[in-house]
Amino acid sequence: MEITAQMVKELRESTGAGMMDCKKALGEANGDIEKAVDILREKGLGQAAKKADRLASEGLVSVEVCAECKAATISEINSETDFVARNPQFQALTKDTTAHIQAKSIQDVETLNSSVINGVKFEEYFKGQIATIGENLVVRRFETITADANGVVNGYVHSNGRVGVLIGAACENATVAAKAQEFIRNLCMHAAAMKPSVISYKDLDKEFVGKEFIALRAELEKENDELKRLGKPLHHIPEYASRCQIGEAELEKAKKDIENELKAEGKPEKIWDKIIPGKIDRFYADNTVLDQRLTLLGQFYVMDDKKTVEQVIAEKSAELGGKIEIVKYVRFELGEGLEKKVDDFAAEVAAQIG
What we know:
Oligomer: single chain
Strand content: 15-25%
Number of helices: 15
Order of helices and strands: HHHEEHHHEEHEEEHHHHHHEEHEH
Strand order of the largest sheet: 1-2-5
Distance between the termini: 30 Å
């Protein structure tokens, strides 16, 4: 397959790798860009970058949380320009639409369009807003999460309206749920900034973890080559990338290695039980880099970066007198998942004069 300059450019923008490396990888992958990305990353040449040419979609992400923190809704409504996204009428439209979705327990766009708002069908209401605002608008997606008597939900939308998060928690009792409202909102703020993909390592696909682990090791080994040249401390090369790769056998081996290390250091066996827990924590920290990047519970908390979110939740549970468990997580970032159209200029001109 012919490797075009456009393909090389796209791969280079998505991975940050050099031009010749991109061309070679595309050749190995027979022009398949997704495979070429994997080839580059396995060689430590490509970053875990987002795909090239993300659509710079405009609009707003909106969040509505009911007063009792038992229901929370998030929506993304797109506009054509950022200018309209800053328009007070459009801002009011996004807020009213999100509140309407929550109040009517609407689950999909078809139901939304046929629902009634301010005495008219939503579809007609929305068309009227488009006519008034003067730009095409789209309700792209939305989601509502709810909680029972022993649960709590909360949300956060960043001040620029481009990122929003909802989190739902199951608590030991209604008293803990009521006390946890502000804490859950703080977790939403953390997730808005740190971009976890899932709640826990248990939600990660093992095949995906295996591929990412190969890329992670290659990335660190390549960086170590440069650090060695500069005479700087080297990165630790992990044995694993996620807790989903660490079973009982792997943990037992880690404990044996720690005991052998303590024995070699001449540490008295009677104090090992005081040292080993801290060493196990260090083992997990060194070997769960993917969890720290992708999972809410595995990340270090932005308000106390010495502790993971999981540890902070455990501490808050003890403080409030009952267990708090994160059971639902939704994060919307404006325009994510939309691919920018690559225009064929010649074809476009031909279409206009044809």
